[in-house]
Amino acid sequence: MAHDPPQMQTSDPAVMRALAHPLRIEIMEAMDELGEATASEIAERLDQSVANASFHLRLLASAGFIERAEPRGREKPWRSKHRGRNLRPDPDDPSSIAESSELGALVVQREAARMAAFLRAAPAHLRSGEWIPAVTVSTATFWATAEEMAEVAQELATLLDRFEDRRDPANRPEGAVKGRLFSTLNPDLDELIQGADDSEPSDDGAS
After folding, report:
1. Most exposed of 30, 34, 109, 139 (fewest Cβ within 10 Å)?
2. Domain boundary residue among 69, 99, 127?
3. Secondary structure of the chain: what % helix, strand, coil (to 5)?
């Protein structure tokens, strides 16, 4: 029977803390791409010892991110329990917000470093020009309410739904390669701070 995992959705700070490690983020990406893998396969792919890979796999399993797949003879592979992960924090739980922010910061650092490495290597690999229009680095400034910005976030989240079935190699058209999308969206921190200051009562009013 085909493995059809559900979407993961949690704001549990302990669960997010379990993922907030550079190697465990890499392991989950590998799991998403491979479908399933043994500790030895993960170790080889990520240039780690089998013991270290096994340690981090067990931590991910205890937090509910992965589970055992069907045995392959004597091999015992792991697989992701979910087809995607929504780890948006609970707005009423400061620890949930803190853990989600830390996890997000690690992902941004990793993806920014990956993109910078790609751009530096690109001149040697984009000489034909075919893929140049597919590469973009863009920034934008705009003014929106919290509700409008949340709508943009949802639109970004669903942007790639039309490619979801291509996780199966049989559904990929000729010439398709793995693409990477890295996007960020956030209200300006200075304006948030200024808005909070403006909403606080003044102490210099007349009594």
Report:
1. 139
2. 127
3. 55, 10, 40
Boundary of a domain, candidates 73, 102, 127: 127
Tell me if 30 sits within 8 A of 67, measured CB to CB: no
204 found inside a domain: no
Question: Running DSSP on this structure, what letter comes out for residue 75?
Answer: B
pTM for the model: 0.83
Q: Is residue 207 part of a domain?
A: no
Tens of pLDDT, residues 166-192: 888 899 999 999 999 999 999 999 999
| Cβ-defined contacts of 86-95 (< 8 Å, 24+) | 86/7, 86/8, 86/9, 86/10, 87/8, 87/10, 87/11, 87/15, 87/16, 87/19, 88/9, 88/11, 89/11, 89/13, 89/16, 90/11, 93/11, 93/13, 95/13
Map tokens 């009562």 to a residue. Answer: 201
Q: How many domains are contained in the chain?
A: 2
The overall longest dimension of the chain from CA atoms, in Å, is: 81
Q: What's the CA gap between 96 and 50, in Å, rounded? A: 32
Same domain, 107 and 147: no
- Domain hosting 78: range is 1-127
* Total count of residues recorded for the chain: 207
Beta-bridge mates of residue 78: 37, 68
